[in-house]
Amino acid sequence: MSSSAPPLPPAENQTQELLKFLREENSANRAAIRDDAVANRQLLLDTVRLVSIPVAVLIAVAAWFGFKSISDLKGALEAEARQSTQVEVSRMQNEIRGRISEQFQTPALQKMVKEAAAEQTKTASEPLIKQEVATQVKARVDTERPTIVAAVTEQTKAAVKQMGPQIDQQVRDSVEAKVQHQVEPVIQKLNTLKSDADLQRLIIRMDNDDAVAFDQLLAILSETTNVETTDLVRTAITDVVERHETAVTMGRDFKAPLTETQMLVIMMDTSHPPVDRETAIDKLLGTSTQNRSLVPKLVEVITSDPSLNVRCHAGRAFNNLTSQHFKCLDKPDQLAWWQANKKAFERTP
């Protein structure tokens, strides 16, 4: 099974039709020439046949009238036949040329020829045009290259200069983000270590009679949500409270006798040594067992004295005068009770 040829484009189809037409005209012309030649030969033969009798007569006459020879007659006949044939052939050629010229005068054929010529010209000239354009453009670019390079460089510098702040900001942001990403875990770890170190320092200070550190640890215990921190602080506070609760106190005395007013001043003045403040509390409690007006002063000592030992002595005196049983350093419960019962306690004689 044979496959049909793909359809030709319009321009190529017109060219093919033109060539086909020319071939057909050429074949027709050749056939016409052959037919004319055959006709001429036939005409010649017929002429020879027709002329043979008159020729014979003429020969006889010529011979009669003194023709030189039969050969002269033959030459004359051949010349006459050749001239007649040549005339006929010329006529046929002129006729063929005329017919072809008439065909080429047809508008459709002229249009077909023009289109074919234009298409052929376009096909043949397009590579040449492209090559010439490319050559001229390359030459122009090579000529203008220094100017182009200088212009591009200048524009690039201007654009970079204009974008300088943005580039700097982007670089800073990128560096800060990277540094933040790298440093943040270290900072967190350092903060954790610092917090742990701060806690250890507070615990050490609390263990060395620092009531301010004790208050700070109480605040941390009430605010923190970290389980480890809560356990550490609660254990340290409980240990300090229990140590002071079970500590054995020894009676002390001042070198010289002091009045209650003098001892009250010493108790409230933190510039005196903690031992003197403890002794003043113990002496005031021993001499003012029923002096209920001392309780507000004891509450102030429990709240703000910088010594845990002094606070513990004040807490025991508070329990003694209020008939309560708080631990000596149970500051939150002591203050809560005092706030709830202060007015009733002061009204009681």
Would you kindly provide a brief summary of this structure?
The protein folds into three domains: 10-116, no CATH class; 188-243, no CATH class; 247-347, no CATH class. Helix content is 83%, strand content 0%.
Word description of this protein:
By secondary structure, the chain is an all-alpha fold. It folds into three domains: 10-116, no CATH class; 188-243, no CATH class; 247-347, no CATH class. The protein contains eleven helices and no strands. Helix 5 packs antiparallel against helix 6 (227-246), helix 8 (274-287) packs parallel to helix 10 (308-322) and helix 9 (295-304) runs antiparallel to helix 10 (308-322). The longest helix has 56 residues, at 10-65. The radius of gyration is 69 Å and the shape is rod-shaped. The two termini are 135 Å apart. Residues 189-193 have low confidence and may be disordered.
Average the pLDDT over all residues and give the rounded result. 80
Domain unit count: 3
Helix content: over 70%
Order of helices and strands: HHHHHHHHHHH
Global geometry: rod-shaped
Major sheet details: none
Report low-confidence residues grouped into runs of 5 or more: 189-193
Q: Structural class of the secondary elements? A: mainly alpha
| DSSP summary: helix tally | 11
Span between termini: 135 Å
β content, as a range? under 5%
| Strand tally | 0
Rg, Å, rounded = 69 Å
